[in-house]
Amino acid sequence: MVTDAEWARIRDGLHLGQVIEGAVVQVPRPGTIGIFVDVGLPVGGLVDVLLLPEWGEDWPAEGTVMDFEVWWVDSRQQIRLKPRDPRYLRADFPEFVARFRPDWPLGD
């Protein structure tokens, strides 16, 4: 746990869409929660189940190192992430983004 001031400093250094390399460190209950990611900061990252493929066996395994995008940061001391590799995104990701985040760039 970091102090509120340290979290504010970390958060101010992040921006939506920023690419961060991370390692999947935990996949609790595949298919139900999401994945926890170490991004080399004093706070962790999370990819929410809503962004991941429907089936847990299609999720990245613990130990997988890959690029993520900063998807959301708020007062919670956690960085919400989106996998850059489309294999690890829900099948209808473009439609999901159009509905819930219409200004989000779909990238490369």
CATH superfamily: Nucleic acid-binding proteins
Q: Element order, helices and strands?
A: HEEEEEH
Count of distinct structural domains: 1
How many angstroms does the end-to-end distance come to? 35 Å
Strand order of the largest sheet: 1-2-3-5-4
CATH architecture: Beta Barrel
CATH class type: Mainly Beta
Strand-pairing-aware structural class:
alpha+beta
How many β-strand stretches? 5
Please bin the fraction of helical residues.
10-25%
CATH topology category name: OB fold (Dihydrolipoamide Acetyltransferase, E2P)
Give the low-pLDDT segments: none
**Largest sheet features:** 5 strands, mixed, barrel
Computed Rg: 14 Å
The shape, in one word, is globular
